[in-house]
Amino acid sequence: MTAVHASRTASRQTPVSDTGVVAGTDESLLLPARPPWLRRRVLRLRKYWYRRIRPDRVRLNGVSIAIDRQAFSDKIVRRLYDGGYEAEECQALAKTLGATDRMLELGSGLGYLSTFAARRIGSEQVTTCEANPHLIPVIERTFRDNRVAPRLLQGVMTRDGRAGETCPFYVHKRNFWSSSLSDLGTDFRRTAVPCMHWDTMLATLRPSYLVMDIEGGEIALLQDFDAPFVDKLLVEFHPQKTGEIGIERVFAQLAERGFERTRVTAGAHVYYFARPATAAGDASSRAQAF
């Protein structure tokens, strides 16, 4: 599962194009307004500079992230230097997160999106959950470095878990970024993490915006989803882990509950869902494709 300097006014609900760029994007939200050729050159120079200099810290759309090469995989470091780490999700969030939203994120990662959201709408309106215990110090550092304090919960969200119970969680012995609720072999170490009950959490927090990147766990949580206070969802699906049938079932059930679906970017399984009322008054019609 990128912080933008933006005023805390209600954000416009603008679709994102298949190229991963928000349709009708105000370029000032992502980079200072420039001709397209100059913007491409700036991005190439940025990529070259980061990879050549290899700094210990990067800044993505206003969010400062410290790079721990002992803890981060090479792939994560490359994505941070290239500016591609959770770029699609952040671009979509930049155009759809409103000043009055209450955001719940499942799958904190580095704490990037929750930091972005907290800088935009305030820490008190953001809650983020991460199952992997090794990532908690990383997330807390990101929060400290950016002077935000969203609510951070550590544990696994389940449909049948109860407060105080634990469930098994498997972390790769050499790369703790690789983790799973399933035992994938001898390279994984089993640990116990707290369980959090999904329906109870929703009823308690009453979020208006859900953000999910939980490596396949999204299917179980979104099946038969019924939370009338939730108006927006930004979800990364993982068909290689869940299969297509479960995803199509979730699409159909969300459509029955009034959510319209748009794909954030071609080549990635990131989707934005919104009830039509949340897009009322939007200059760009929700009929316009991502």
Number of strands: 13
Query: Over the alpha carbons, how many angstroms does the gyration radius reach?
Result: 19 Å
Strand content: 15-25%
CATH superfamily, by name, is: Vaccinia Virus protein VP39
Report the CATH C-level class.
Answer: Alpha Beta
End-to-end distance: 20 Å
Count of domain modules: 1
Biggest sheet character = 7 strands, mixed
User: CATH architecture, please?
Assistant: 3-Layer(aba) Sandwich
Return the structural class: alpha/beta
H/E element sequence: HEEHHEHEHEEEEEHEHEHHEE
- Judging from the principal axes of the Cα atoms, what is the shape? globular
Count of helical stretches? 9
Segments where pLDDT lies below 50 for 5+ residues? 1-33, 280-290
Mean pLDDT: 81
Strand order of the largest sheet: 5-4-3-10-11-13-12
Specify the helix fraction band.
Answer: 25-40%
CATH topology: Rossmann fold
